[in-house]
Amino acid sequence: MRYTATVGDRELTIDVQDNGHVRAVSLNGRPLTVDWRLIGAERPHAGLPGDSRADQYSLLIGRRSYEAYARVVEPEAGAAGDAGRVIEVYIHGRPYIVGVRDERSRALASLAGGAHVAGDATIRAPMPGLVASVLAAEGAAVERGQTVVVLEAMKMENDLTAPRAGIVKAVHVTKGQTVGQNDVLAVIGDPAGVAPADEDEEDA
Asked: What topology does CATH give the domain 2-103?
């Protein structure tokens, strides 16, 4: 599994191959062997504010050992942007705020980020999966953010939404169909005979 971690202004790409406690980890392409063990679940830690509790881990990275406390916290404005989770980590008493997104979260965030106002907008599969349902037929009017296709992937159902308001010009999948990453699922565009908004403004 690939993750993106944000620590302050640094962004790290982490590839993890899990094999029990020992994990083969690649950090920005640099291979590491990490042995980790949870040694205390939900333990209080004096370094954390208030009555906060954190899990305690023993880490061995190469020949260096660490004791770390970690807890999931609510995302804070500016702390980690649109990361899937924000984790507060204490190592040797020093706090770190880490934003973590897996491939699925990153792909969905990227898909949702492309706002279209006019012109054809394509809805693609952010990952391989199974089409659980198609909620908008060809020719139907949709609003921006309205679910068009539900994709079942990684044991979760993911709502794939219209990136713009318009008409469903094409639907390329049916319920129960298996799709690959980046396959085109549907196309949203302008109603027939309606010019894009920017062209209207130029002609005015």
From this structure: Glycoprotein, Type 4 Pilin (3.30.700)
